[in-house]
Specification:
The chain is α+β, with helices and mostly antiparallel strands. It has five helices and four strands.
Amino acid sequence: MEENLIKIPIGDKVIVLKYKDFDTDIDLDEVTQIDYSNLYGEIVTISSLLNRVGIMKADVENAYNDFKLEVGIFESQRRKEIIRENLAVGNKKPSESVLDDEINTDPQVIAMRKRLNELQRDLNYVDAFYWAVQSKDKKLSVLMKSVTPEEFAESIVEGVVNTFYIRKFKQQL
């Protein structure tokens, strides 16, 4: 598992957040369902899972917004080229509807918009995953309100929970 760094400038300081990537494929049904046979394992790991999914969501959203910006810039440049080409051959500036038609049928613009749609779909997938994990977190909070630390140590089951491996040492986490 690779450790990643997020550097956030705040005033004259830089805060560095460290996290590890998911190291396996994620079974969405398994991770978003509550494992009632190991509620204690669920409650111990859900915050870390929610954090990882939140980071993933931020990364996917950033990729979408960056590409959306690229598409907008490319369309603006293409629009200027079309105007220049028309003026160069002695035509007058094309109307907005003619410019829109030219842009909307440009093969590069079409390809970029298709890619933007794919990135939007990916963002929607991760967003749905994020909200499912957040819902699970809220349900676990309600289920586990009166749990004591001793109950955790006695009742937790070793194994993989929410993509994290839980191991007990001398009956302690």
